Amino acid sequence: MNMITTKIASETEVSKPTTDEAQAALETLRRLAEADPSSAAALDLSALMALQPRAQGMLNRDYPEDFTPDAQYKATMPDLQNGPESLIKGAHAEIQHVGISNFRLPLKFRTRDGEVLTLETSVTGSVSLEATKKGINMSRIMRSFYAHAEDCFDFEKIDAVLDSYITDLESFDARIQLRFRYPMLKTSLRSGLSGYQYYDVSFEMLKQDGVSTRVIHLDYVYSSTCPCSLELSEHARRERAQIATPHSQRSVARISAALEGDAPLWIEDLVEMCATAIPTETQVMVKREDEQAFAELNGANPIFVEDAVRLLCEALEGAQAAGDFRVIASHQESLHSHDAISILTRGETFAQSSYDPRLLESLIHRG
Ligand SMILES: Nc1nc2c(ncn2[C@@H]2O[C@H](COP(=O)(O)OP(=O)(O)OP(=O)(O)O)[C@@H](O)[C@H]2O)c(=O)[nH]1
């Protein structure tokens, strides 16, 4: 065995071909491929391919299962995102947010009752980037997050992940938004049945210039009976014995509340706050007695879109844990072919003169 290896090695040394000879051999192969493609295809070129993967037209097309990059190989790999400032395209401007949007994984959340729920969560994580740096080490946004992924998620945990971002990505500011659907068991109005209501919730935390902002976003879905239409229907009944029904619609309020102080604001607290302000939440389990109750509940609580944001504003002003807030309501009209909307904000956090053109569309919930 050794003898053969030695012989091959010495022959290789002795008969080391010149570049011209190699070129001629390639030309021979090329001519064979043109003249007799099946004979060319029958040749085992794998050794040649492995030796010369970079030769034009001779790239290895088989996935190299056994290839493992070692440290020396990795050191040769291009690392553009950490390249010099001269590689920057466009303005050498600071970037406020650069990162990954919508990576999903199951995360644990603790309910107000202490139960732990594991929920599919969509994560958006970003950091700021200095004007002189080409790019971030993008994969660290996920890798740093995964280092915490087994723990229960609350704002304290998000704070810890943000610290990891700032350290691991050598950045100044960082932001995380977690989006998930939070289930709560709801009892029907009169039949005593119950079923799960799912709430679109988002926890958002930003660390900027050393200041932390924590925000909970919640979409609350309810029925809005038009007060004007209700009175017009009653008028038709009273004046002309004419049956008429007021229009009502599936409506959505998006509550965004910045947390203040150390008092906790549970998702359950926010939902209860909404239900107290606007009791006509859409129902999960409905028998006839529930449906009748819902009609009565709507009759007792007709609201315009202006009423909706003001009722929720009143509730949020009374919440100790909530600081700045924004309430957006969208009444997806059954009278009109368009929606009635309103936006009410308190404080600097949500003060805006311009809104995303698609913001209001995002308030439309599928059934
Ligand atoms: N910065 C940046 N990276 C991107 C983008 N799109 C894809 N990537 C890729 O994200 C990959 C992972 O980036 P890194 O975190 O720097 O990977 P790495 O250098 O192996 O990781 P470290 O060992 O942490 O340095 C790179 O291959 C990038 O090309 C982008 O728009 N910006």
Automatic annotation (TrEMBL):
<dbReference type="InterPro" id="IPR003801">
    <property type="entry name" value="GTP_cyclohydrolase_FolE2/MptA"/>
</dbReference>
<protein>
    <recommendedName>
        <fullName>GTP cyclohydrolase FolE2</fullName>
        <ecNumber>3.5.4.16</ecNumber>
    </recommendedName>
</protein>
<keyword id="KW-0378">Hydrolase</keyword>
<comment type="similarity">
    <text>Belongs to the GTP cyclohydrolase IV family.</text>
</comment>
<dbReference type="InterPro" id="IPR022838">
    <property type="entry name" value="GTP_cyclohydrolase_FolE2"/>
</dbReference>
<dbReference type="GO" id="GO:0003934">
    <property type="term" value="F:GTP cyclohydrolase I activity"/>
</dbReference>
<comment type="pathway">
    <text>Cofactor biosynthesis; 7,8-dihydroneopterin triphosphate biosynthesis; 7,8-dihydroneopterin triphosphate from GTP: step 1/1.</text>
</comment>
<dbReference type="Pfam" id="PF02649">
    <property type="entry name" value="GCHY-1"/>
</dbReference>
<dbReference type="GO" id="GO:0046654">
    <property type="term" value="P:tetrahydrofolate biosynthetic process"/>
</dbReference>
<feature type="site" description="May be catalytically important">
    <location>
        <position position="226"/>
    </location>
</feature>
<comment type="function">
    <text>Converts GTP to 7,8-dihydroneopterin triphosphate.</text>
</comment>
